[in-house]
Amino acid sequence: MEKKQPMTFAEKILAKKAGLESVVPGQIVTVYPEHLLTHDNTAAIIGKISDELNEFGIYSKDLNIIVLDHVSPAANEKTANEHKKVREFVKRFGVKNFYDIGTGVCHQVVVEKGLALPGQLIVGSDSHTCSYGVMGAFSTGVDRTESSALTLMGKTWLKVPQSIKISLKNYFKTQIYAKDLILSIVRDLTSSGASYMFLEFHGAEMLSISERFTLANMAIEMDGKGAVFQVDQKTHDYLKNIGIKRSEYEPIWADQNAKYVKELEYDLSEILPVVACPHSVDNVKNITEVEGIPIDQCFLGTCTNGRSDDLLIAAQIIKGHKVHESTRFLVAPSSRAEYQLALKNGSIDILVEAGAVILPPGCGPCLGAHLGALAPKEKCLSTANRNFKGRMGCKDSEIYLASPAAVAATAITGVITDPRKYPLQSLTEKEKK
Predict the structure, then answer these.
(1) DSSP string covering 4-50, please?
(2) pTM, full prediction
(3) End of a domain among 234, 266, 298?
């Protein structure tokens, strides 16, 4: 009997979903995803198939996950009408997993609602759908046309990707964070260096679920097909805390001796604070090289770094200080649940006292559609995942990307600042809860 070839995570899960013994990179497989995510763009998606919907309806009430988050709440009549159209669609077809404005950024919502489970296959009409690898799922983005077909038929085809193995070891030094690590990886691989490849993170047991989320979220910034972490006790504990039973999911992981197109190793103790400079996410420099650049707006939030632990780090740095008069500090919690956690631990009080503006849970300024768009010649330091021209609403502005700690330190000084100059302050009893 011929010995089965060891498979990577991506190969193994796609083989299972396609009902095959094994697959190889480049092979085309037909699969039925557990879920299809769409957001505000649902209005455009259903507009493509209005006749078909009238005749056939949707494939399943359980397939679609819809989250209104990109322009939340509606900024004008156009977006208000789009939101209305989505709500009518949800009601008409009985879509089970619908989350209206204020629930949060779609990717955060999908994870915290238990809709991304280990061993699942999820696609979405948003490029950062790759985030669900944090839960041990295969997740990737598809376009609106494919989303339209999926809504009707429930199936799609995928090409099996090659995989890159990224091994981690040791621990971050003080004031170094997952954002510094992923920006360092993007710098090394470049913005096209993982094109149609899947990132497999190994040895990540020292990282929290939130830190893993940050890493998985930015796989697409290297043109990656997705990213994944091995399910471990932290994953099990997270899922248990949100009400998911162990019997409800079946983890999948790579075989030993699986073949990778590339293997990288990162010693977390050697990672330094970094900044992605305009106008590309791989234009990454040590923060000491860009310190002192004036910043007009600081932004803390997004699916990359808008969770309660991110807000807590910022609060621990800015506590006792005020936002500098030359800058603005906008904060958008990644979800209502994370907002509530930040309220309970005192982070929001500290940020507001310092002069930060708290925005509704959602994408906020990240995509430049509303709430915090930039003016010509303005510079923003953001915890988001993209900094190309026009990303925050103005092609003549500049966007820098960094960790929540760097953004908070910069809000104090008004210029890009190394967060190591502002040690994390001791917590009050309220913040410790």
Answers:
(1) PPP--HHHHHHHHHHT-S---TT-EEEE--SEEEE-TTHHHHHHHTH
(2) 0.95
(3) 266
